[in-house]
Amino acid sequence: MCGIVGYIGKRDVAPLLLEGLQRLEYRGYDSAGVVITGPKAAGLKMVKAKGRVRDLEAKVPARFKGTTGIAHTRWATHGAPSDENAHPHMSGDNKVAVVHNGIIDNADDLRAKLTADGVEFLSETDTEVLVHLVARSQADTLEEKVREALRLIEGTYGIAVLHADFSDRIVVARNGSPVVLGIGEKEMFVASDVAALVSHTRQVVTLDDGEMATIKADDFRTYTTSGTRTTANPTTVEWEAESYDMGGHDTYMHKEISEQPDAVDRVLRGRIDDRFSTVHLGGLNLDAREARTIRRIKILGCGTSYHAGLIGAGLIEELARIPADAEPASEFRYRNPVVDPDTLYIAVSQSGETYDVLAAVQELKRKGARVLGVVNVVGSAIARETDGGVYVHAGPEVCVVSTKCFTNTVTAFALLALHLGRIRDLSVADGKRVIEGLRRLPGQIQEILKQEDEIKKLAKRYADAKSMMFIGRVRGYPVALEASLKLKEISYIHAEAYPASELKHGPLALIEPSLPTVAIIPDDDLLEKNRAALEEIKARSGQILAVAHQEQEKADHTIVVPKNEPELDSILMGIPLQIFAYHTALALGRDIDKPRNLAKSVTVE
Ligand code: M6R
After folding, report:
1. Which atom of ligand 1 is nearest to the CA of 402?
2. 95 a catalytic residue
3. pLDDT for 510-535, tens place per residue?
4. What is the CATH number of domain 3-241?
5. 600 an active-site residue?
6. What gap in Å lies between CA 384 and CA 373, rounded to an integer?
7. Which CATH number fits domain 451-594: 3.20.20.70, 3.40.50.720, 3.50.50.60, 3.40.50.10490?
8. How many CB atoms sit inside 10 A of residue 534's CB?
9. Per its database record, what is this protein's job (predicted)?
């Protein structure tokens, strides 16, 4: 999705902005642009380019000097990717420039009115209406001009505005799209994602929806869109700038897969309480008495986070015996759900900014529900909107496809399920057993990572498949769903996931030698049932790649993973299939970190 970066201070601004844009590349974009000014610059200077940040960099002239500027990576919504549609957008008199993330819903109406008033539009974007509204405002201050313009628009935005007549400041505003201020030494930054700031400062202020800010080189203030001052509470970003680097790996995905032993270690760290065979989850804001009154748990997330939620629901039912289920937040928010006072809702999100999840949380809160978050990005919108929750501590995930966050989110759910279980009916012995299993996870993930070479060979073998089937039963089914998503996202091979029990109810019709099946077969009480499914596939000459705790006779190939406690096996069984998807995509020459048509955080509807 789109990215914003801005700077005001004494340094040469263009290289800083370009570096910031590079750090936002992972979010997905199709064009980029930058506008600058400064005490010695006459007016605003702008460069835009369709394509990558390096294409923009190539167009920036040598004498592109200034000390204040805003820049943008655009993900096309209104109008095709082009130089004209790239942000920033500038007013006809070259005085006002705006970068915008989000969607202005009433842009067509505003455009028609402005056009009727003689305004000439240079792009097809919704954002350009905002520029003209700011430029036409008769207000005395830039803050008031922006406020007047925002009063006229409906929709979502994270914006940064630069004005040639007010070149000592940048005005920013947020409604539904993240805006973070970075506080430096006599310099200030703004961005839509801390990734663009952390190499310069880790002191940040995250704006709330309905909040605006004025940043100057040595000062900033925050206020509401109606002008009331707000209190800004700077926080320190825990992630180091280096965690955004590739660290010697060829891709972020490879790096993030390899980081999983450490990441899982982090989600466990400081939380296990051996004395009571339970875990402490500091930010849950749910005491034991309240936990005992929960009648149901509903988990909401999108994509990979939804899949992690499915595993989480299974863990909660198994360990805490609370009825639980997961649903895509994108569906939930549109079906006028019954919101039950005895249900605990849990929103899951790596980024903490996914619009569908945030909208579901806001709807639930409006109806008085208690909502917890299972989130990776500290201080993100979902983390702040929820009543409490569990941070998954995976560290920054840069690759568009999620790997380590999935594993950490599922592990965080295991902690939550254990915590709730021990408050309810889970025995001390079972609590101890699960804790020992959790402690074994980092070492077992390391063992799986050591199999990369063999998995790579298998990936090459299956890479020419046009389509693949993924099956699993009960605990294995969400693993199959996630593995199939991983494969399709980065290799573009069509993949379907089905409960193995459903094969004979339809999908068996697809099985033939050219459609390989990946089967998740834990060594649990359903092992024999799963083996029967393999028989059915073999009888139709289907190829089988099994992920199992022991070699599967009916499978053509088996990836053997270490066995943990049955409740925790799902955490491990997805990991070889992340490696499988990675090497399949590599064999097919795909752009692994930035798969086509996808963005890292989907902050629009
Ligand atoms: O940041 P979130 O966890 O809320 O993102 C949700 C999905 O957009 C995300 O998991 C998506 O499915 C990824 N491409 C998965 O690899």
Report:
1. 16
2. no
3. 999 999 999 999 998 899 999 999 99
4. 3.60.20.10
5. yes
6. 9
7. 3.40.50.10490
8. 22
9. Catalyzes the first step in hexosamine metabolism, converting fructose-6P into glucosamine-6P using glutamine as a nitrogen source.
